[in-house]
Specification:
Order of helices and strands of chain A: HHHEEHH
Structural class of chain A: mainly alpha
Radius of gyration of chain A: 16 Å
Shape of chain B: globular
Number of helices of chain B: 29
Radius of gyration of chain B: 35 Å
CATH architecture of chain A: Orthogonal Bundle
Strand content of chain A: 5-15%
Largest sheet of chain B: 13 strands, mixed
Number of domains of chain B: 4
Number of strands of chain A: 2
Strand content of chain B: 15-25%
Largest sheet of chain A: 2 strands, antiparallel
Structural class of chain B: alpha+beta
Largest interface: A-B, 23 and 21 residues
Number of strands of chain B: 25
Oligomer: heterodimer
Distance between the termini of chain A: 34 Å
CATH topology of chain A: Arc Repressor Mutant, subunit A
Number of domains of chain A: 1
């Protein structure tokens, strides 16, 4: 069903938002991702994913935290919704199930 | 200090994001900008900031519309296209033509620039060229003396490998049992050629395929033609032209990809030991080097003067010559100027650039047309926009409406353009000399490219109208006050002027290029090319010894006017050397020159002229050994204008003295293309071993004459098939490149002009319609038909004249650039500058009259009553 499926980048960003708790907005998500996933993602892509996740109701947002550095503009802080957490859990459990089906020797070889 | 991000970024963001999201995104980007400003400086930060902004374009709101809304937009777009049917048709026709033509041009351009790029090591391969200045005769050779390769490789460690390639025969014959197959591109080459120019082996292995004398590699198609199978390693074939047996050691896959040096049969270098030479000037061979991973050609270039001194200097000093070795990247060769002895004709970078420009113009024209027509319709749409706004439509939604409209239109045009391209394909192949087939042409990739191009064009064309139409203040047009804004009017005038300008430029450009091509084709070339037959004399001792008997035999035919033997291809190049010459006062000098060997009948047979002295005389026994002719170019170069016959030829090299008298001066005649300067040439009396037999025929019954000549040949030389061609045909084929260019350019310019006229017709018909009431009122008040026309056309005529005047210097500049390819130029014809003005005026006047007459002849009451 459309809406419950999570793309790879969506999943990463949703996870990052969850881990950043109250401090998640586009720029912090970007630097966190660069640190943890060791990959460069353009800010525009992050915006697009964040808004999409909000449309899917996996995220909710609120404004706050204008600073001088931002030219006085507010930040849009994101929090995961229950649906978002459920989607993350489901994605994880699907992966774990599949991992279990891989025969032992294949994982041993690496 | 300015620590703000570039302002244009904010403007773009404003356009991309809706009010809900704009602020925070702007803030985010600014935050990142400030971080980068600290760590990487203002310039980098600004560039990256703009990159972020541009990458945000896909977040444009309209791409995230809800599907129901998209359906609605499509319906509205279709409705509005249908409502303005005639403009939609003009637009679609223009777009489809431009997309189809631009796409075909793109295919041609990418074909022309694909040469040699498919070789895996191509970026590290260079050809070694030699610029030789022998006593003032400068030639840039694309081949170098044979020992160069070995010396380069052993001297410089950064040269990983070298390969020598010799062109054995453009068309050669291989024979196996009773089967004969003629194939193009026979080369002899070092085994390393397979390392540089990778080929896929179907049979055999590359490592040993060329390692010994007599080994050869053939393509799969040749193998199939000769043996009916490709598993033929070890079989022996006969190479007819050189009387050699070759052992097939490898079969390679046919490769249709483009190369400046295609190879179909590769014979091992050592097979032709008799051609080997260790001289450092003359006996050149094509030499390629492969650099190691560092690929540092600049350093190598700097070392070349020392290398030249070490190996070439001694030999060059004998000729009082100077020289310079340089490297040319493999992938640059095909589109660069041709050097002396190029194995195959080149393309032309100027032509490719010119055609790319035309392709761009095509797309630009389609966009301009769309913008023109869309903004002209602004008044019409203003009411609709106002009502939408009043009902609460956001600006983004309006934008997306107009963008959808233009993208839909161009998508329709794309579908049409695929059909159009398919129909035009045969003509395109004809003109470009390419061999595209429909099923190569319509690959998924190409169709995607067309669609992408169309959507891109639609997007580009839609942006401005979308912006322009959605910005009209709602209240004004609801009050019925909307009028065409001056900004839109100025823009339209500029665009129309641009279209006229480009049309004028193309028309006069084509006329001038056409003049030049006709000029070089018909230029006086110093001999009569018609009815002149060139029979190739095979290099075979039996034929060589009896060719004069054959010649005398055919001379008895009443249709043969004259015949002559010589070692010269009238459509080719001659060899050059650096002889010692003697002035009238006995002083000696060396000077580079071309040389030809012909018999006493050659000059009259080809119809060249003696301007001083006399021709060779068969009756004079001393002529064969002791006389030479020179051409006018040589007289000028040697400085013998006062008394050309007073000079003397002393010897081929400073060491060999072999004095000959100058007995005559031949009027300059061209070898090969007529647009290059005639080289100074010394003509010797041939002493056998000629390669060509020239026969002058009279005009009646050429087929019968040819049959006789062939039958006589078979009688004399039953083992050799006669090979002949007509000189005028051979010469004509030298201009294929210019011909192709001209016909491609012409057809594409016709397309450009066609599209431009569609746009102009649309605009004229639209403005006429807008002024319908004005025309009616004028008519009521007593204006005559011609008066009305004059008032309506004034604006357009003015634009036409401005555009044409501007086009003159532009044309002059561009055509002059193109003409640098030629040594002789046609005169500038003033007609080429007047004609476009005439054509534009006539066309404009015609469409104005056409559209206006309906309005002007109509009953004024019809136009006025509807309010």
């Amino acid at each position: 069903m459309k809406g419950t499926y999570l793309g790879e980048l969506e999943e990463l960003i949703l996870l990052t938002v969850a881990s950043l708790d109250t401090q998640a907005y586009a720029v912090s998500v970007k630097s966190e991702l660069e640190k943890n996933a060791r990959r460069k993602i353009n800010i525009s892509a992050i915006h697009s994913v964040l808004y999409r996740l909000e449309e899917k109701r996996f995220l909710k947002s609120s404004f706050g935290g204008a600073t001088q550095k931002r030219g006085g503009k507010m930040k849009r802080y994101f929090r995961t919704t229950n649906a978002g957490l459920a989607a993350l859990r489901e994605a994880r459990s699907i992966r774990e199930q599949i991992w279990k089906t891989i025969p032992k020797f294949a994982t041993a070889i690496k | 200090m300015n620590d703000q991000p570039p302002r244009i970024g904010r403007w773009l963001l404003r356009w991309i994001y809706d009010d809900d999201h704009f602020d925070e995104v702007w803030g985010d980007l600014e935050e990142i900008f400030q971080d980068r400003l600290q760590s990487r400086g203002r310039f980098v930060a600004s560039v990256l900031y703009l990159k972020d902004v541009i990458l945000s374009v896909p977040n444009l709101n309209l791409f995230r519309l809800n599907p129901a809304m998209i359906g609605n937009l499509v319906t509205i777009a279709l409705r509005s296209l249908r409502k303005r049917m005639s403009y939609s048709i003009l637009n679609i026709a223009g777009l489809a033509t431009s997309i189809a033509f631009a796409f075909m041009l793109w295919l041609y351009i990418s074909d022309q620039s694909s040469y040699d790029k498919h070789y895996p090591l191509a970026d590290r391969i260079y050809r070694v060229n030699l610029e030789a200045n022998m006593n003032g005769k400068v030639d840039v050779y694309c081949n170098v003396p044979q020992p160069t390769a070995e010396a380069l490789k052993s001297t410089y460690s950064q040269i990983e490998e070298t390969a020598r390639i010799g062109l054995a025969k453009h068309i050669g014959t291989l024979e196996y049992k009773d089967k004969k197959i003629k194939s193009a591109n026979f080369v002899i080459a070092d085994p390393s050629v397979l390392k540089l120019f990778h080929r896929d082996f179907i049979e055999g292995i590359a490592a040993t395929a060329l390692s010994e004398p007599g080994f050869a590699i053939i393509t799969e198609s040749i193998a199939l033609g000769l043996f009916g199978q490709s598993d033929v390693v070890g079989r022996v074939v006969h190479f007819n032209e050189f009387e050699k047996d070759l052992t097939i050691r490898g079969v390679i896959a046919d490769d249709a990809r483009r190369s400046h040096f295609p190879m179909d049969v590769i014979v091992s270098w050592d097979t032709f030991k008799e051609f080997n030479s260790d001289r450092w000037y003359g006996y050149h061979t094509y030499t390629y080097i492969l650099l190691n991973n560092g690929n540092d050609v600049a350093t190598l270039d700097h070392q070349m003067p020392a290398f030249f001194d070490r190996y070439f200097r001694k030999t060059f000093d004998e000729f009082n010559g100077k020289g310079r070795l340089f490297f040319q990247p493999l992938t640059d060769i095909y589109l660069s100027d041709e050097l002396v002895w190029e194995p195959n004709p080149h393309g032309s970078r100027t032509n490719v650039l010119a055609l790319s420009l035309v392709a761009l113009l095509l797309v630009a024209f389609a966009v301009i047309n769309y913008v023109n027509l869309a903004t002209a319709q602004a008044a019409d749409r203003a009411m609709e926009v106002s009502i939408r706004k009043t009902m609460g439509s956001s600006r983004q939604l309006l934008w997306s409406q107009f963008l959808y409209e233009s993208i839909l239109l161009s998508a329709g045009a794309a579908v049409l353009s695929i059909g159009l391209a398919w129909m035009l394909l045969p003509f395109f192949n004809d003109m470009s000399g390419m061999k595209l087939r429909a099923y190569d042409f319509f690959t998924l990739l190409h169709i995607n490219a067309i669609l992408l191009l169309a959507v891109g064009v639609g997007f580009l064309a839609g942006i401005f109208p979308a912006f322009y139409l959605s910005s009209s203040p709602a209240v004004n047009s609801l009050k019925g006050k909307f009028s065409v804004s001056p900004a839109g009017e100025i823009l339209r005038r500029v665009l129309v002027t641009t279209q006229y300008f480009i049309a004028a430029l193309l028309i006069s450009g084509i006329m001038l290029i056409y003049n030049q091509v006709v000029f070089i084709k018909n230029k006086e070339i110093g001999f009569q090319r018609e009815n002149l037959l060139n029979i190739k004399v095979p290099s075979d001792s039996v034929v060589n010894n009896h060719i004069d008997v054959y010649m005398n035999d055919i001379k008895t035919s009443p249709r043969v006017i004259a015949a002559s033997l010589g070692s010269i291809e009238l459509h080719g190049e001659s060899n050059s050397f650096s002889p010692t010459l003697q002035n009238e006062d006995g002083s000696r000098f060396q000077m580079g020159s071309d040389l030809l060997y012909v018999d006493a009948d050659f000059i009259p047979t080809i119809g060249a002229e003696i301007v001083a002295g006399r021709n060779f005389d068969k009756a004079m026994p001393t002529d064969r050994e002791g006389s030479v002719l020179i051409n006018e170019a040589a007289v000028r170069k040697f400085g013998w204008q006062k008394n050309p016959l007073g000079g003397k030829f002393v010897g081929f090299t400073p060491r060999e003295v072999e004095e000959k008298n100058i007995v005559g001066v031949v009027k300059d005649f061209h070898l090969g293309v007529s647009y290059q300067l005639v080289h100074p040439t010394i003509i010797f009396f041939t002493g056998g071993g000629e390669t060509n037999l020239y026969v002058r025929l009279n005009n009646d019954d050429p087929a019968g004459t040819l049959a006789t000549i062939e039958a006589t040949w078979t009688k004399h030389f039953p083992n050799h098939k006669i090979e002949y061609s007509f000189v005028d045909q051979d010469l004509k084929s030298l201009y294929t490149r210019e011909d192709n260019f001209l016909s491609l350019l012409t057809s594409f310019c016709v397309a450009v002009v066609f599209i431009a006229s569609l746009g102009i017709i649309g605009l004229i018909s639209y403005t006429t319609q807008l002024r319908k009431k004005e025309i009616a009122i004028r008519k009521v008040l007593g204006s005559t038909f011609s008066n009305t026309i004059a008032i309506l056309s004034r604006k357009f005529i003015f634009l036409v004249i401005i555009a044409n005047i501007l086009a003159i210097p532009a044309t002059w500049y561009i055509v002059r650039l193109w003409l640098t390819n030629f040594s002789y130029h046609a005169d500038w014809s003033p007609l080429a500058f007047v004609a476009p003005l005439g054509i534009c005026l006539l066309f404009t006047a015609f469409s104005i009259v056409w559209h206006t007459s309906r309005a002007a002849l109509a009953n004024p009451a019809e136009a006025l009553k509807c309010e």
